[in-house]
Amino acid sequence: MKFLSLRARLRWLIVAMLAVVLLPLGAYSLRRTTSEMDELSDGRLAEAARTIGALVHHAGLRALLGQDSVQVPVLKKSVLKLTGQTRTYESEVGFQVFDRQGRIILATVNLAPLPPPKTDRSDYQDLRKGSHTWRAFTLVDPSSDVVIRVAERYDSRQEIIHTLWLDHGLPLLLGLPLLAVLVSWAVRRGLLPLATLASALSAREPGSREPVRLDDAPLELQPVLSALNQQLERQEDAIERERRFSADVAHELRTPLASIMINLESAMATADPAEVHDSLAGAQHSVGALAHRIEQLLALAKLEAGVASNQRGTVDLAEVAGEVIEELVSVIADSGVELGFTQLSERVVVQGYEAALAALLRNLLENALRHVPAGGQVQLTIEQGEQEATLDVIDDGPGIPPEHRAAVFARFHRERSSRGEGYGLGLSIVQRAAELHKASIELLDSPFGSGLRVRVAIPLSPV
Fold it and tell me: What is the pLDDT of residues 355-386, one digit of tens each?
């Protein structure tokens, strides 16, 4: 069934369920009806025997006792066919009347040869006569001088049973294929919104942000449509980010590559060793800048792709901060800025991605060091509260005007007050790392009187 379409699966599953339910019900109903029919037929035999007994008792048939037996004629089925008479079924039923000595005194011709019953009580029994089996009831009345046996051929009952089989089985045999056809139509009609959805998706233009809409969509399909539109929107956002990132990479790498080419061409065009040295030094500087820029672009690409998603675990922010500060020792020394680190809680532990949190801290510190002039200060503070861990990077640099703070998270955005070879990617990396941890970022005024305070609040995972 795994190779069948959804429509075929539904059709065959519904038909199979109907068959599983209806066939046993039909068989049970036939069995019950057959049992009831047998009981009714046995009741008719007993009633006929008592009727004959009453006639013997009240109609003067006692005079037959001691006389020769009287046989009641019965027309056979073959005779009725030859004479064209209506079938009376009388050859399929009969009776016998015996005296207490077992001598037959009255009987139908078809049952006359049967021997007397060997029982002293009323009971049912099956008798074999020729090629037929008879169902017989023997009436033994202690107050009467006669024993009465009434019998009916089983094949007469079988005709009724066969008719019941047809009545119960034929509707199922004819109805199940018809139900399969009707179910197929109903399933196709019910799944029509899915076909409409497939057509709408096929006709959708690449890059379109228009949500998929279906008129009169069923209630069950509305959550699917909502989830599908959200997924399409996320995919378009991801594609747009990748497209923008590719364009940004091409744009940002063009300048350092051009600088390298110019310096190399200058070195090749001169014979002065001093000029060659200066040109190669400039090329080396441009290569270093290019390497740093590529490193930042790769870090941003990793965060965009969610590479760290499989490395989520318990992260000690104090340890991460110590590693990042140790990594930036040479940068801090070259900047001439004093860096302070304060841990206000005994432990500051969050659930997250260590690489992403390290990138967040590194870029916040690098960004602060780039903006603070020599002799300034940068303060890193971490603290763990009841609901979240907070990370503050405070500097006494020129700061960012409140009206410009919303724009600093854009890629390749640089403030005019920044020093050094910044590329405007630091805060984009910070923002993406914060998004991975559902953290919030606030740009506030520095308590040092000038500068900026960046606060990152990371929610704590429930224990």
Answer: 788 888 888 898 888 888 888 999 999 999 88
Give the pLDDT confidence of 288-344 residue by residue, as tens digits: 767 766 776 676 566 656 554 556 788 899 999 998 888 888 778 878 889 999 998
**HEC sequence for the chain:** CCCCCHHHHHHHHHHHHHHHHHHHHHHHHHHHHHHHHHHHHHHHHHHHHHHHHHHHHHCCHHHHCCCCCEEECCCCHHHHHHHCCCCCCHHHEEEEEEECCCCEEEEECCCCCCCCCCCCCCEEEEEEECCEEEEEEEEECCCCCEEEEEEEEHHHHHHHHHHHHHHHHHHHHHHHHHHHHHHHHHHHHHCHHHHHHHHHHHCCCCCCCCCCCCCCCCCCCHHHHHHHHHHHHHHHHHHHHHHHHHHHHHHHHHHHHHHHHHHHHHHHHCCCHHHHHHHHHHHHHHHHHHHHHHHHHHHHHHHHHCHHHHHEEEEEHHHHHHHHHHHCHHHHHHHCCEEEEEECCCCCEEEEEHHHHHHHHHHHHHHHHHHCCCCCEEEEEEEECCCEEEEEEEECCCCCCHHHHHHCCCCCCCCCCCCCCCCCCHHHHHHHHHHHCCCEEEEEECCCCCCEEEEEEEECCCC
Domains and CATH numbers, the chain: 6-165 (3.30.450), 220-305 (1.10.287.130), 310-459 (3.30.565.10)
The predicted model scores a pTM of 0.44
